[in-house]
Amino acid sequence: xxxxxxxxxxxxxxxxxxxxxxxxxxxxxxxxxxxxxxxxxxxxxxxxxxxxxxxxxxxxxxxxxxxxxxxxxxxxxxxxxxxxxxxxxxxxxxxxxxxxxxxxxxxxxxxxxxxxxxxxxxxxxxxxxxxxxxxxxxxxxxxxxxxxxxxxxxxxxxxxxxxxxxxxxxxxxxxxxxxxxxxxxxxxxxxxxxxxxxxxxxxxxxxxxxxxxxxxxxxxxxxxxxxxxxxxxxxxxxxxxxxxxxxxxxxxxxxxxxxxxxxxxxxxxxxxxxxxxxxxxxxxxxxx
Length: 288
Hints:
Blueprint: E1 5-9, E2 12-15, H1 16-39, E3 42-53, E4 56-67, E5 71-75, H2 82-88, E6 99-107, E7 110-111, H3 118-124, E8 125-128, H4 139-149, H5 154-167, H6 171-174, H7 187-200, E9 205-209, H8 217-230, E10 235-239, H9 243-249, E11 252-257, E12 260-266, H10 267-272, H11 277-287
């Protein structure tokens, strides 16, 4: 073996330049592996969460980890605590008189109980509600109001508004109506406008509280397709009573009952091979 070669074993000899090339490939592979791990890091970690409205307990010792760039569905009967849990993730439950919680809710590395800059926190953790709730102002102002409050320039606000309308498939329909009222839009268009408004501030997590429950099947399909695309670069948690919807779009699903998480699994496993008989009963009753 010459001075400018390196033996990896008795049968493989590489020159220094070849060795450097191999090192680049190997470290690149390590980098790609680490990137994949980071892409699936835990974004929401819930430990021993119990919640109360006054003396009434509504959540009971929840344990849950939600991964980045995935859609997680919360299913269960009405009144089981799904929406309370969802709203606890961005401190909206904390605005209700008498609400308190025990345990830890960590979102994007922050303990929600310790958040002081709530506005900035909610910019990172957006929410779309059950029914469309456009503001009583023009379509453009709906999209740019929060950006203005955050100090974004007028030119950039308009560019972002148009981009987000295009992202949700509304720009072509509304480009000549941007200064008109949103209340003339259909329910599905209003909900997509509200989604565009939530996306305008570039959240990292999007919370969805039965966002398609009041919409027709076509509008529901449009929203679901949007959610799947959005999950390529953000974390989505959706409350839904539509089990077929959960099956279509969610990577993982949590079944809740009486304030508890009965089971949290990959969606297909939870629906077809549940571990808990309560999950099986609920799924069979809902699907028939």
